[in-house]
Amino acid sequence: MTASALVQTLAAAAGGAAHPPGLSSCGDCEGDATVLADRPDGAVVRHGGAVAKAHAADTDRSALAVRVEVAAHPLLAGILLPPLTRPSPAGPRAVTAWPYGTPVDPADPGAAPWEEAATLLARLHAVAPGLLHGPLPPMRGPAKVARALARMRTAQPDRALTGPVERAWRCLPGWARGETAAPPARGGRLCHGDLHLGQLVRHPVPQGPWLLIDIDDLGVGDAAWDLARPAAWYAAGLLPPLVWTRFLGAYRAAGGPAVRAGGDPWPELDVPARALTVQTAALALAKSAAESRPLDEAEQVMLDSCARIAALPPELTCEASS
Q: Which CATH number characterizes residue 178's domain?
């Protein structure tokens, strides 16, 4: 399917979800459909109060169907944005429709909903997977680290830059590379799988409560993974200590089970945070190579973090992670 044909398909799906049955237009529509994202891993088009998403071409449709059912489950009300439609049964890419929500404003970092994100994660992690539609697939976070490494290798950036990333990758345990199941002590929780601020919207618009979106990586696994990206940013110096303290404090205050209730959280966060550091650095190198540009400041910080991880004594990396 060409890019233009895909947009037309999504526009039709969003329009169908936005309009009441039997009507071709609705009062809150704002002109033509709007493309919100157009990436290989997910294209999104908005029409009025609905958005339609084309999931990645290699999406496991059976697993996606389960994930969408979970998002619609009453136990996840007020945590996950519920779908408007189930995945399309045919076509080159699965398509789903969702209510439109107000995203986080990247131009106003001071208003970023870190505490709200942490509270939503704590509530998500507290839901027993056995009470949901299933069996639930594994959380896809570790698999995304492996995909990032594969993408970096395919892009073939300077080997002097990839060395620290490869060494930091090799010192992750097999479960954090998506090669084996997580050990029982680190698994069994319902996880989002790809938490960042772009995964929150306000619904109903414009000032409804914050909800989590994007269930493509949702599944059972280590709940600490959902805290790993902000933890990695904090460890690298990209997330201010005060913001990290607010995020972690809100998660603990809401009874989040991913880390101990008090004291040092890093025994639980160390491996997932290192994995997200590797993933972020690998993607940065892949993108910079594809675009024939140097790393930007934030990307270089994550690469430097990989170099620090790779330089740690074995007892603090490979042996401690096994």
A: 3.90.1200
Say how many domains are in the chain. Answer: 2
User: How confident is the model at residue 33, as a pLDDT?
Assistant: 84
Q: How many Å is the Cα radius of gyration of the chain?
A: 20
pLDDT, residue 319, reads 40
Dihedral through CA 288, CA 293, CA 295, CA 298, nearest 10? -90
Tell me if 152 sits within 8 A of 162, measured CB to CB.
yes
How far apart (Å, rounded) are the C-alpha atoms in residues 288 and 290? 5
Are 304 and 297 in contact, with CB atoms under 8 Å apart? no
Domain at 49, CATH number: 3.30.200
Average pLDDT along the chain, 322 residues, taken 10 residues at a time? 80 88 56 82 90 94 96 98 91 94 94 97 97 91 96 94 96 94 89 97 96 97 97 97 98 98 97 98 97 97 96 63 44
Q: Do 186 and 289 lie in a common domain?
A: yes
**pTM score, two decimals?**
0.93
pLDDT at position 133 is 80
Question: Is 58 domain-assigned?
Answer: yes
Residue 90 inside a domain? The answer is yes
Domain co-membership, 77 together with 197: no
Q: Which of 45, 66, 99 is the last residue of a domain?
A: 99
Nearest to 17 by CA among 98, 105, 111: 98
Residues 21, 15: Cα–Cα separation, whole Å: 11
